[in-house]
Structure formats: structure tokens, C-alpha cells
Amino acid sequence: MAEPMKIRATMAGDVADIKVLMNHPMETGARKDAKTGQLVPALYIQDVTATINGAPVLTANFGTGISKNPYLGFKVKGAKAGDKVVVNWVDNTGDKNTAEAAVS
Amino acid sequence: MRKQTTAKLIVAKLIVAMAGLGIALGAVADQASPSQVQQEFIKLYAQKYPSVKLDDYIYGALAFDPDSMAQYNSIMEFPPFESDIDKGRKMWETPLKSGKKYADCFPNGGKQIAGNYPMFDDAKGKVVTLQDAINACRTANGEEAFKVSDMKTMGTLTAYMRTLSDGMLMNIKAEGPKAMAAYEDGKKTYFSRKGQLNFACATCHVQNAGNRLRSEILSPAVGQAVHWPVFRGGDNLVTLQQRYDGCFKQVRAVPPPQGGETMNNLEYFHSSLSNGLPMKASVFCT
Amino acid sequence: MNALRRNVLKGATSAGAVAVAVAAGLLKPTQALAAYNKAAFEAKSMADAMNGLGVSSPADSKDITIKAPDIAENGAVVPVEVISNIAGTTSIAIFAEKNITPLVGNYALSGGAQAYISTRIKMGNTALVRAVVMAGGKNYTAAKEVKVTIGGCGG
Question: Does ipTM exceed 0.90?
Fold first, then answer.
């Protein structure tokens, strides 16, 4: 089970500014381990979904080109303080993670 | 014969460049005080780059390049290495074998103290770095000392612990003959050419500060020591002495051991050049 | 059932969200909530990646803004922001044209989600960072060159 992701959700006018920092090595599968010389197998987040009060706002696919410990920022109009933001991810091995935060 | 002459010219050029500092390779008799030395450095940089404010020296090369500064700010808003710092916090908060915590070993529970290190310990007769103090805490409480060059242990612990001193002004003191001797030793290392490439720290960071070395802008010595450790590329933890190690290797010199006298004295001298500037630990580095 | 399917089924209170995801190339219409769009993400050329997403001849648009550094000092973390001012934007796809697999991320927006994505990407070489935006069923594009240099912290 991966380390928890962090969500920061704040209101700016009538738009919720949501920033997510995920913990994941995002291995491309093309990197060689410095010690063993072997290729490190691909290990990367593929699917990301975000909901606000249960309603989907973002559905995304990531490729191996997303940086390690992926950062994702998005904005949602019409959200209010107190709304519940839930973010889920699933990686290529089926490992998953979920986190939630209230918009402040 | 020609090689020698060229070397002499190079050394002479370095001395001439340093002459403006009045501290050319130990030329200052009767050891200028650390604050006098720092002032000479600041004067030199201010002459070369009048538009860079002293406050911005803590940003090093970023102060010279707005595009880089923007990238730094963007990443520092939500740094990818936050969980590494969290690991350090867990280490810091875990009691040692004796039941005591690291915070018990340090004044003020370890907060706002990193700027005092390295310091000269008169009783021990040598420079003590923050890592040395952490190890002293460990061994006094039933634990084995960490290897100071091990990023997984000492590196990670200090990546968190040093953030407790964010905002503190660097405050290195060298008082008394023994402390000054260590300071002078650090200064000598700083100004001595080394390695196959025959560069001194000063060659890049005094003579060529603000210029590009390959694609990178060289940062001035003033303001460097306040912002360590760094996370290179967002995930590769590097402590200050680990960086010295890298610099030695880059000029193709054999690096002295981290945590040893030469490196500690160098850190002592180098840190004093940033006296009065605010610290910020665990930052993004390219 | 994988988490994505479960969440989309649970959360899709309207056909809108699912339709948007399908249109964005995230879910293949032929398979009920199929897995990850491998064809697009494993494509090694821009042409194949665009094909994989079902995008052809996107129109150049000045209403798409890409904020990215002129010179990325470390290709491992290049901050990129894409803002689309095209009305009715439903998805944004981001490419790094010279990456081994150019498609980096594909984002389908629904509910009140604004046409704005901020992320950090890896780039191996100096290249165009390209955004392809879908709005009103049509595709639009813009690109910005990002130079990638070696070294950092002096080496």
C-alpha cells in the first residue's frame, strides 16, 4: 500500500483550487538500477479520478512521462467550503490509493 | 616549462582577482575576522552584480535567472519530497533506546538552533557540526552513530530537523585562537586549487559567480550554506558535505571524508560567509 | 472490477461524465469501461499517440495557454500548466513530443471542473510540449518549446 497522497483544497472566489501530491515512483520501465544493472520494471499510476461530494469532476490517465510523486492541480467552479474532495488512483499493478479533504 | 608558466599565470590571475578581497590566499596577515572576510566577499559580489539584492543571495543561481526562480517557486509550493521530510520527522520523534528523544539533547528542543552550527567546541578542541551533535545525542542514549554521508539515515533525519530552524539567521562564531585556526583551515581549503582540473572553490564561486559553467549559473559563496539539504530533481537528497564531496569529484580531486576535520572546517568557514542570512532547509534543487 | 470502473459507475450521476470520458479517449466505447488506453500511451510517435486518442488534424488555437519554463533545468520535474479558454472544453491531453512515449497525460473534465490542468512532467530532450483540447466535439492544439539542459547543482 503506497504512502498517502496529500490534498490541499481552498476556495478562491467561487472556484475551488485543488492541489494533489501523490506518492509514487512513476518508473518508466526504461531505467537501469545503478547497483544491479537490471531494468527497473515499469510502475506508474494509470488512472486518477476526483469527485466533489461524490460527483466526478476529473477522470485522468497518466503515462510514464508524469514526474515521480505526481503533482496535479485542477479547479472546480461552483464548489463551496466544506465540500468533500475525494481523489483515487490506480497503478499498472492494480495498487491503489485514496484520499479525501474538505474544501477550506 | 610552458606548463609551469601557464600554471603561474593562472595562479597569478586568481590572486589578482582575490586581491580585491584583500585576502588573497592567506595574504591577509593577522587573520581577518570572519565578519571582515564576509564583508569583503559581499563587496566583491555587489561590485560585480549591483542589481542583485543581498537578501536574494540565499537563492543562489536562481537570483540571476527569473525562469529558474519561477520553476523553483512552482515546485516549492507543493514539493514532491514532502513525504521524505515526513520520514525525517518520524525519525526525530521516535525515542532513542534510553527513552529520551532527540529534542531532549538540544537547546530549545532543537528548534531555531541549526544556524549556530558548525560551532567550535573548546572542550573537544574541534569543530562540531549539527550531524556531530546528533550523533553525540545518539551515542549518549544507547544508539550507534549514523554515518554522516548516509542520506537514508543522517540525511533524512536532518532533512526534517533542519526545517525546525527555518527563518533563523546564520550565526557562525569563531572566537579564540583554536576556533580561528579551524576557520583559517577551512578558508585555506576554500582557496586552494585542487584536483586534475586545478580549481579552487573560489575559482567557481568567487571568480566566476554569476557566470555559466556549461548550462548552469555558478552561485556566489554568500548565501549558499543556508539552504541545505537539497532535493536534487525533487527526490535526490544531498546534504551540504555531500555537495562538497561532489564538488571535489567534479574538479577530479579525491574528496576528504565527510565528517572529518577538513570537511568540518570547510563547512565552518563556508557557513560563516552566510552569517546574517535566513535559513531554509530541504529545498528543491535542479 | 477495478477501482476506476467502480468509481465512475458510482459517481456518474449523469451520462455526461461517462460520455466525456469516452469521448476523451479514456474509455473505449466498444468495451464497457475498458482499461487504460494503452494504444495511446504506449505509442512512440506523436501521430500514433494522437490516433490512439482518436484525434486527427486538431486546429491550432491561440486560446490555449501553456505555461512551462523556457529552459527546464531538470528534465525530471518540468512544471506545466495548460489553460483552455475555448468554450465547452471537455478534455485536455498533454504531450512531450520527443519523449519515447509522447503522450504524458489525458484529463477529462466534468461537473464544474475548469479547463485548467497543472502538473509536472518528465522530458528527455528539448521539445515541444503540446496540448490537445477537445471542446464541442472538435479538437484544438497549441504547443510551447521547452529546452532541456543537462546538469544542475553544478553537475
Answer: yes
Active-site residue B204, yes or no?
no
B-chain CB neighbours of C69 within 8 Å are 67-68, 70-71
Domain B82-165, CATH = 1.10.760.10
pLDDT tens-place string over residues B125-146:
999 999 999 999 999 999 999 9
Enter the pTM of the model.
Answer: 0.87
Cell of B141: 542514549
Contacts of A28 in chain C (CB under 8 A): 100, 122
B86 pLDDT more than 90:
yes
Nearest to C153 among B80, B214, B285 (CB): B285
Which chains have at least 3 CB atom pairs separated by less than 8 Å from chain A? B, C
Can you state the percent helix, strand and coil of chain B, rounding each to 5?
Answer: 55, 10, 40
Smallest Cβ–Cβ distance between A63 and the set C20, C101, C116 belongs to C101
Task: Give the pLDDT band of residue B213 (cuts 50, 70, 90).
Answer: confident
The string of pLDDT tens digits covering residues B113-127 is 999 999 999 999 999
Are A69 and B235 a contacting pair at CB < 8 A?
yes
Count other Cβ atoms within 10 Å, centred on residue B145. Answer: 16
DSSP character at residue B153: I
Fold designation for C3-148: Immunoglobulin-like (2.60.40)
Nearest CA in chain C to B74: C79
Distance of CA B121 to the CA centre of its chain: 19
Report which of A89, A92, A64 is spatially closest to residue A6, judged by C-alpha positions.
A89
C-alpha distances (whole Å) from A64 to each of B86, B90, C79, C99 are 25, 30, 15, 10
Q: Is the pLDDT of residue C120 over 70?
A: yes
> CATH homologous superfamily for B2-78+174-256+269-285?
Cytochrome c-like domain (1.10.760.10)
Q: The domain containing residue A59 runs over which residues?
A: 6-30+39-102
| Residue whose C-alpha is closest to residue A61's, from A70, B180, B248, B111 | A70
Q: How many Cβ atoms from other residues are within 10 Å of residue B105's Cβ?
A: 17
Question: With contact defined as beta carbons under 8 Å apart, do A77 and A15 qualify?
Answer: yes
Domain at A79, CATH number = 2.60.40.10
Q: Which phi and psi angles does C60 have, rounded to 5°? A: -65, 140
Facing residue for B83 by CB, picked from A19, A23, A67:
A23
Read off the pLDDT band of C16 (50, 70, 90).
low
Residue with grid cell 556531530, as numbered in its chain = B132
Q: Please check the confidence at residue B96 and state whether its pLDDT lies above 90.
A: yes
